[in-house]
Specification:
This protein has about 200 residues and is an all-alpha fold. It is built from 11 helices and no strands. The longest helix has 24 residues. The chain is flat, with a radius of gyration of 19 Å.
């Protein structure tokens, strides 16, 4: 099953690359026309894509962190299972975009480049059902993480980030991605420091 999964994934990837080559003239797609390139891997970019308050996958969707942890716990039992390869593929996706010069994905809400990784990690959610036999606090943390994730994305979809992308976004600056007060998450929840909607009641 694992081999079948790899072959199917490779076939789809090859089809996409052929399509990109025919339509855009480059196997990596239309974005190859943008002035960006691959750079050496750094753990800073990797961690920023997962945990920073402006682009962190696990900050905008904290339930995925629990899903990843549950799947990781299962790897020693079945290292070549389909769930294990989902986790490997998600990790490879994060590594890939950690090596992309424009890792921040430009104008977007949350970690746009990691949409595929989020989907792969979502497939590990069945392992979270095993939390029913775990301690009560762990089950409650998982439920809270799901509700928090829903709240963040529903809020972002309904009202946007209060102009964060146009006024506070600092491109591919790794340090800026960690500034909590001026982060996209904070601006989405309460508005920016100079956002009229954040001080309307004062």
């Amino acid at each position: 099953r694992a081999l079948g999964f790899l072959l199917a994934s490779a076939s789809m990837a090859a089809a996409v690359m052929i399509w990109n080559w025919v339509v855009y003239g480059s196997a990596v797609g239309g974005y190859s026309q943008v002035s960006a390139a691959f750079v050496p891997f750094t753990w800073t970019a990797f961690v920023t894509l997962l945990f920073s308050p402006s682009r962190g996958l696990f900050v905008f969707s904290p339930f995925l962190l629990i899903a990843a942890a549950a799947g990781l716990k299962n790897i020693p039992k079945s290292p070549l299972s389909l769930p294990a390869f989902c986790l490997y593929s998600a990790a490879a996706t994060v590594v890939f975009f950690s090596c992309w010069e424009t890792w921040s994905a430009g104008s977007s809400f949350g970690s746009r480049y990691l949409c595929e990784a989020a989907l792969l990690l979502s497939l590990l959610l069945p392992f979270c059902f095993q939390l029913r036999s775990a301690s009560r606090w762990l089950r409650e943390v998982f439920i809270l993480a799901v509700l928090c994730s829903c709240f963040i994305h529903i809020t972002g979809a309904r009202q946007g980030d209060h102009g964060w992308t146009s006024r506070a976004f600092r491109g591919d600056d790794l340090a800026a991605a960690w500034k909590w007060r001026d982060s996209q998450l904070v601006w989405t929840m309460i508005g920016g420091p100079d956002d009229p909607s954040a001080t309307a009641g004062e």
